[in-house]
Give the backbone structure.
Amino acid sequence: MNKREIITRIGIALLFFISLYFVEAGFCGSSVVAKYNNGFGTLDMKKYNVLSVQNVLSTMGQEGIAVYKLYYLMDYIFILFFGLFQIMLIHDVYSFNENRLVKACIIGIPILRGLCDMIENTILLRTLFTFPKVNEIAIAIAAFFTQMKLWCIKGWGLLLCIGLIWRIILHFKKYV
């Protein structure tokens, strides 16, 4: 690995962790949003429906809604860096595999996760701008994409673990 690749990898990791900090604990992170909605936090990591969206948002007030809007704007940045971080890790773990279909699938999962996350964010952000009016169909679509995103994260984690175990087995087979 050359110096440029090392710097790129360190940069991706740093930008991922910085963006993670901002969406979790930064000035508009989920912990700050939670202060405005009785500890509920953000919708994008939970199961929700129209009633729960209305209940949560009705407790927030204008200042809370403004912070929540900033949260989703920061989350778009997080989506990008989390995706790059996921792709970098999974690509490294499966670098021994030359099958193009396998590589497309393992890289496709973080891309699909990012697309689901962007659709979810866009709908929820629009809901914040139109609140107290809440579109039931839009919330159902957003909830579907939230669950898809969460399944993609679980699937990616499972593939990462399988790839690590596979690499370990291949490593020890060389010395047997």
Observations:
- The mean pLDDT is 95.
- Helices lie at 3-24, 30-36, 50-58, 61-93, 100-130, 136-174.
